Amino acid sequence: MARWPVLPRESERDAVLSILRGSHSRSVMLRGPSGVGKTTLGAHISQALRADGRTVVPVVGLAELAEIPLGALAPVLASAGRVDLESVSDRVQALVAVVGENPTKFVLIVDDAPLLDAVSAGVLYQLVRVFGVTALLTARDSHEVSGPLARLLHENLIDIVDLDGLSLEHSQSILQQYFGGSLRPESLRALFEASRGNPLMLRELTFAAARAGGIHSGDFGVEVSVAALPKHVRATISERLLQLSDDERRLAQLIAIAQPIPHAAIRGDEMDVLARLTTEGVVEDTGDDSLPSVRLAHPLFAEALVVELSRAERTEIIREVASRLTPMGDQQLRFTATVLLTSTDATITNDELDWAANYAHAAGDHTVAAALAERAQVAARRFAPELVLASALSALAESQRSSQVFESVFGLASGDEQRAIALVRWGQHVVYRLAQPAQAVERVTAKLGELDAQAQAVVRPELAKWQLITGDATVLSGVADPVSADGGLAAVNAGLTAAMIATMSGNPNQAFQIIGQTRPLTEAFRFEAPYADALLDLSEFIALVASADIARAGDFAAQRRLDRFADSAGVWSYALAIIRLHDGKLTEASALAALAVDQLKWRDFTGLLGTATALHATIEAQRGNPNIAYRLLSEIAPEYAGDAKVILQRAECEAFLLAAEGRPEDGAHMIIAAVTEGINLGHFLLSALTLTVALRLDQAAAAREQCDVLTQLSTSPLIALIREWGEAAAGRDVVRLCELAPSLASAGVAALAVDGLLAGARSAAKADRRELERKATLLARRLAADMDHRPAERDVEELTEREWTIARAAAGRKRSREIGQQLGLSVRTVDNHLARIYRKLGVTGRVELEQVLTEL
C-alpha cells in the first residue's frame, strides 16, 4: 500500500490565498475540530506563499508551554541570527523591528494559536495590529480564544474560515489513492460515516482496520471492516470529556449509543444538561429539519464515551434508548431501537425481528437485513425471514448461498401467495444477479400454471420483463394493465411493468398516468416490492426525456443520485451518462458511465448492466478509443444479447467505430438493422435515440423511413422533433436546420444538432451559399461551446465578446454614437467593429444583422 495521501483541498486553499494575497490583505484563522486538516492546509498555503517570495515565520502553540512567557516564540528567537543580543527582550524587539519594517515580505503561520502563551500572543497582536503583518492562524473550535487573540477578532483584523470535514468524494479519492483501487460501497459508507469526513479519523480508522486484519480484496472493491481505535487516538480528545459532570456524561453516553437522537427523545429534566453539552461543543444539532436531532460533535467522542462502559452499563443505556424511541411512532426510530436491542440479552419477538429484517432490506441495508433474518430463525426456519435472507444475500452478491436459501424458501412457502412472491424474488435473483434471464423465464413459466389466478397476477408482470430481456416480443400484447387500487401486490407489479412499457414505447402521457395510479400503492407493499418507487422513478425520468423536457429530466436524475449508497445509484449514474452523451459532453459522460458500470455490478435490480457497459463503449468509441470500446463490448454477458437496450446501444458503438474507419454508410446500415429489432421489441424511444447516430453520420436519407414509422407508433415530442430534423437533413434544408437546432439542443440532443449543422454548412459551401454556411457554422459553434469533443471544421471567424456586445446594440437599433458612449469608444472605432461584424456574419447592414441575430 502507498503512503497515506494528503488531499490538497484546492478550493479552500485558493480562497484563503486570495485573502492573504489581496491588495488589502487580511489575516485568516482556520477554525475546525481536531483532525479536520487545519495544519495540513496551513502547510499547503505556506508553500504557496514561499513560492510567492514571502518569508514564512512559523509559530506553534503548545499546551505544555502556555504558561511559559515567549515559549511559543522561543524557536523563532533562537534562529533569528542575532547572536549579539543576549537579552530575550532585545531579541523580541529585533524580531518585531525586522518583521514590522517589511510587513509585505513576511507572513506569520501560527498553529494552534489559542495555545500561545500570553507574551507570544501579545507580540503577534503587535505585529498584526500595529505593523499590518499578515498572519495565518489555526484554532480548534473547542479552544477558547482569549487575550490578545480575542482582541484581534473583536477589532475585525482576522477573517475566520471554518474548515469542515472532507466530502464523500474527497474521502473516496483519498482511500482510492491509498488502496490503489475502489472500495466496496458498504466499506466506503462505513468509513465515511464513522469519520464524518475527518481526515485524521479516516486515516486512523483505516490503520486500525489493517492492524485488526480487517482489509480484504473483494469482487466489488476493497472491503474494510471498521475496527476500534487505539487508546492513543482516543486520548487526543478524552481530556475534554474528563471535564463532564456525571449527568453530562450520562446524557452524552446515551446520545453516543443512539445518535442521532431526536430532541423529542430528550426528557425535560435533561434539557439544561443538553444545553451545557451543546455550549461546550460536545453535542451539536444534525441540521435535519424534518426530525430535529442531536449527535456528538466529534466522531471520536462516541468511541471514547462508549469504550469505558461495562456490558451491564451499555445494556442499561440501550434499554433506556429503546424505551424512548419505540413509542415515538417513527419507523426509522423503531428500527434503530430493535437493532440496538439485538446486541443485548433482551427478548425480541419474531414478529418484530421479521419487521426489522424487511425494513433493513427495503432500506438497502442488506448486511443488517441478513443478520436480523438469521436472528429471527434461531428456533426454526420460517418463510418470511428466509425470503429476506435469500434476497439480502443476492444483493450482497453471495450468489451461491442465496440460490441455496431460495430453494429453502420454496420449501417453506405455504399457499399460492407465498409461492408467487418466492418465484418473483427468485427470478429477480437469477435475472439480475446471475444474468440468466432465460433460465428464470423457463422455470417461472413452468410453475405459473400451478398457481391460482390471483397469484399468477402477481407473477405475470415480472415475467414479462424477463421475457423482453430475452428478446421475446410476444408478451407486449399480453401484459395486464394496472388493476384497481384494491388489487394488492398484483396491482403494484402490473403498474410497474405497464409504466415501463409506456416509456419504452415513447408515450409519456400514458406513462405519467400509470405512474400516478401506481405510486399510492407502493408504500403498503414496500417490503414485498422494495424497488417499486425506484422503478417508477426510472419510468418517470424516461417519460420526461420522451417529452423533450431534458432540463427536468436532468434535475430529476441528479436529485435521486444524491444518495450515493442507495441500491439505485447505478441507475442514476447511467441516466446522467445518457444525458451527457447526447449533450456532447463526452468526458463527463465517460466518467459517469464507468461509475454506472461499477455500481450496477454491485447492485442492479432492473437489468441495466449490459446496457450501461455498451453505453460506456459507445462513449469511448466517440472519444477515439476503439480498443477500449471493443474490450467493453466483449464484457457484455451473452445472455443479454436479445435485450433491445443492449442491441441498440451496441449498434451505436459499432456504428461510430465503423465511421472512424471511414465507413459511415456501413455504420448507418448497422443502426437501421438494430432499430428494426428495437421497434419489433417495442422500444420506440430508445430506437429513435439510436437512429440519431445515423443522422449524425450524415446518413439521414437511409434513416428516413424508420423516422416516419417511429412517429406513427409513438406520441413522444422528442421522437417527433427527431423526425422533423431528419426530414430537413435528408432534404439538405440548411435554413430549416438552423431553425430547428435550438429546439433540438433544448430537448437534450445537442450533439445531433451540432453535427447536423456542420453537415449543413458543408452542403451550403458546396452550393456556394457562403452566408448560410457561415450562419450554420456559427450556430453549431455556439451550441457546442460546452462540448469537449466534436468534429473539427475549417476555421470560421468567431465574434469576440466586444463584437457580440456591439452587434446586439446595433441590432437593437442603437446608433454608433450611442454605442460608443455606452462602451467608451469613438464612433470610428464602433464603425470599424461593425464592418468586421458584417464580414464575419456575411451580412450587408443593420437590417440583415438584426435578422441574423434573431435567428441565432
TrEMBL record:
This is ATP/maltotriose-dependent transcriptional regulator MalT. Residues 792-856 form the HTH luxR-type domain. Keywords: DNA-binding, Transcription, Transcription regulation. GO terms for molecular function: DNA binding. GO terms for biological process: regulation of DNA-templated transcription. It holds the Pfam family GerE. SMART domains: AAA, HTH_LUXR. It comes from the Bacteria.
